[in-house]
Write a structure and sequence with these properties.
This protein has helices at 33-43, 56-61, 63-77, 91-107, 121-127, 144-160, 165-171, and strands at 2-7, 25-27, 47-53, 81-84, 111-117, 132-136. With 173 residues, it is α/β, with parallel strands linked by helices. The relative contact order is 0.16.
Length: 173
Amino acid sequence: MKIVMIYDQIQSGLGAKDDRNLPLGILKEPVGPTIMMENLLKQVDGKVVATLYCGWGTYGDNPDEVARKLVAMCHKINPDVVMCGPTFNYVEYAEMACRVAADIEAAGKIHALAAVSQENADVIERYRDKIAIVRTPKKGGTGLNEALKNMCLVAKGLVDGADITDLKQKACF
């Protein structure tokens, strides 16, 4: 299973909260939470083939254009699934992750999911009927390992076309 990750400036390791205008880019190696997920990814026969990233401010300045470019980059890479997040409680990142995942799913060629915390309730409500949104803790909260495992399991289920109704009830909003 080929996977593309989509991260913000923080999760990509290329900036902090204040580095909002990090331009859209791509990394070919695992970074951020992906490093923590390596053993979990092996369990579902998954491999991250690319990490796309973008700062919150860059996205916020032109969400339609950035989302279009991220979707196009994903189609060019042609993974089996795209994982956006974990976004924790960063609302700007949650909005970007859910929007991009929804746009990817709507295109119908690649599966996508987002992973956000309950603090992003407005974003969750807008997108919960469009994509799988895996529950994550807020930044510094407990349960990150379980959330990362659930991201991998949901991704595998989406790719395999399996009935993941029970998994979504347990792991998603």
